Amino acid sequence: MPIGRPSLTERRKAETRLDVARAAVGLFVAKGVAATSAEEIAAAAGISSRTLWRYFPTKDSCVMPLLAGGIELAADWLRSWRGDQDLAELVEAMRQPGLSADDRPAILALVRLTRTEPGLRAVWLEAHRQAEPVFAEALARRSGLAAPGLAVVVQAAMINAALRAAVEHHAFHADPAADDAADGAEAAVSEALLLAARVFSG
Description:
Domain HTH tetR-type: 14-74
DNA-binding region: 37-56
Keywords: DNA-binding, Transcription, Transcription regulation
Pfam families: TetR_C_14, TetR_N
CATH architecture of the largest domain: Orthogonal Bundle
Number of domains: 2
InterPro entries: Homeodomain-like_sf, HTH-type_TetR-like_transc_reg, HTH_TetR, MftR_C
């Protein structure tokens, strides 16, 4: 894994990918996935179709950078969770909004679409599949382990499942028109982690 600040080129690529993801979600919400073309997504993001296909293998996968941003934030929380801190301190950190105020509603709108759009559902589940080993690595480092053992892998799976369930539950049940609809996701994540911890602790 490279160490240090990403290069300017890498940062620009990441910004372009995020612009595409935001444009794709906006169009998918407004028109539906089937009625949205890759050319429309590219035009909305201010790039050519050829550039879009260099970054993304499918139209549905254009949304991955938005999902990955939320998961990377969770990984950052886990990396900063010190060994002398308990779960309550991790939960408190997760109560603080970490994503852009503009991106939170878009992510919730995207998660709502996963109920009816199989392609987006597959991307959402793939994002969490990729997240699990990242979470396990962060937890192993917290415990001073060279590599994740079975206990750490199970903990990572538990956290991953709690995060996914919390965001889905909030997205599916919160009123999208409510002013604070996007702000409740952090509270839902915190509650899910506490519930999961309670189950595993007996």
